[in-house]
Amino acid sequence: MGPWPYLAAGWILLVALYGLVTSRNLIHAIGCLAVAQSSTYVLLLSVGYRRGGTAPVFSDLRPGSRPVVDPVVQALALTDVVVGATVTALLLALTIQLRKRHGTVDPQALTGLRG
Amino acid sequence: MNTPLVAVAIGFVTVCATIAVLTREPVRQAVVLAAMGLGLSVLFAVLQAPDVALSQLAVGTALTPLLILLTVRKVSRRSTAGSRPGAGGADRDDGTGR
Amino acid sequence: MSARARLLMFAAAAIVIGVFYGVASAETPSFGRASHPYGDRAVAASLAHRTANVVSSVNFDIRAFDTLGEESILFGTVLGATLLLRLARDERRRPAASERVLPTTRLFGVIWLPVALVVGVYIVAHGQLSPGGGFQGGVVLATALHLGYIAADYRVLEKVRPLAVLDVADSLAAGAFTAMGLAGLAAAGAFLKNVLPLGTFNEITSGGTVPLLNAAVGVEVASGVIVLLAHFLDQAVEITGNDEPEEAR
């Protein structure tokens, strides 16, 4: 497939950044950030893929009988999926606070800091 | 044999990501994000990463959209009922000025 | 900055990123190639430590220190969200009313809640053998508990999730990870070294410290996500500010 999986990950990142830049609603912006995060998973797992390889789990596989895909990048993506979701939750909590204190969720209406 | 599946899954995820970004309304975006989470977990499964697929399935299709929907409910509660004059950017002054 | 200027700046940056990324992608080793030096070494190291699931071995044995960092981020975000979403002075808590639920929905919840909880525990406990582990199992456990909300109502959910206990469990699990690391330091001279007996390959007790660290992370993720969801649900269901209209129920 050539470099297409990598380019797809790049496209997802760029389109998510576009959404972040033009967003008029912080909740939408946080959704875009989640999309940008998932582009890294696509890139990492594409880099680690091996044609004809199977999952790096040996509970039902004799070691050495088949090639396996790269487990290191999977471990990196795995922890980040869960931790990324909790970071999303923290950002959403900040949005709720912002709505309470400033009455808006539009980043462009937040012109300056108010006490 | 696996490569066409990978191509289809990557295509689906890319299209979903684009739609998710262009959907400006958070509730609809949450639905698109859930579909994208499902697509991502299928993609991870065909890329032979069952561990990541499992956590993406639980997080991407359930947790993140749920958190977004709850936040929307909390945030929009005041503005939907806010038929008061000046309900919008500057209406906090009557709340904090006490 | 105006919206137009911002868009122009983004376009310039996007072109630069796009060009460099495209060139880098063309030079990256191709998709699906046969040579994965790091992967092969990780597989060998995992088999040497008799851990069947190499991904768990990478997470909780070879790169356990990195996972400690990730886990600390998780702990920090739960703490931060708890602080941000606490009951403010100008807000009050209105208990949720009990609601009528369709009998079929209730049956669905009663049947699937225990099944989902068992699946969650299974995924955590077999992390060193089959796909799964503390991170995935923790999320499954946390979301499974919320079947109680679907099957009954919010008051039932509040009864089955003792938040004070979960807060403590979250901190204890985060501390347990570090404590196991210190145990490795004391026993073998290296932080988070796998000091326990490695057991038999493909048994539930295999992998030395991997199952224990898995369990600690499982408890932490499960209690952390339940606490997070609890605060969001409280905000959406029960807590109202003084200037918010009462909702008709």
TrEMBL record, chain A:
Record has Ribonucleoprotein as a keyword: no
Membrane topology: Multi-pass membrane protein
Database matches in Pfam families: Oxidored_q2
UniProt-annotated location(s): Cell membrane
Keyword Chaperone part of the UniProt annotation: no
Transmembrane portions of the chain: 6-23, 30-52, 72-94
Keywords noted in UniProt: Cell membrane, Membrane, Transmembrane, Transmembrane helix
Coiled-coil stretches: none
InterPro entries tied to this protein: CPA3_antiporter_subunitC (IPR050601), NUOK/Mnh_C1-like (IPR039428)
Family: Belongs to the CPA3 antiporters (TC 2.A.63) subunit C family.
Name of the protein: NADH-quinone oxidoreductase subunit K
TrEMBL record, chain B:
Residues spanning the membrane: 6-23, 30-47, 53-72
Membrane topology: Multi-pass membrane protein
Protein keywords: Cell membrane, Membrane, Transmembrane, Transmembrane helix
Region Disordered, annotated ranges: 76-98
Subcellular location: Cell membrane
Pfam families named among the record's database cross-references: MbhD
Domain (MrpA C-terminal/MbhD) ranges: 12-77
Keyword Signal: no
Classification via Gene3D superfamilies: NADH-ubiquinone/plastoquinone oxidoreductase chain 6, subunit NuoJ
InterPro entries the record matches: MrpA_C/MbhD, Nuo/plastoQ_OxRdtase_6_NuoJ
Protein name (Swiss-Prot/TrEMBL): DUF4040 domain-containing protein
Organism: Actinacidiphila acididurans
From TrEMBL, chain C:
Protein's UniProt keywords contain Cell membrane: yes
Membrane topology: Multi-pass membrane protein
Keywords (A to Z) from UniProt: Cell membrane, Membrane, Transmembrane, Transmembrane helix
Family to which this protein belongs: Belongs to the CPA3 antiporters (TC 2.A.63) subunit B family.
Source species, domain of life: Bacteria
Segments passing through the bilayer: 72-88, 109-129, 135-152, 172-192, 212-233
Keyword hit for Transmembrane helix: yes
Classification via InterPro entries: CPA3_antiporter_subunitB, MnhB
The protein's name: Sodium:proton antiporter
Localisation per UniProt entry: Cell membrane
PANTHER family: NA(+)/H(+) ANTIPORTER SUBUNIT B (PTHR33932), NA(+)_H(+) ANTIPORTER SUBUNIT B (PTHR33932:SF4)
Domain spans labelled Na+/H+ antiporter MnhB subunit-related protein: 111-226
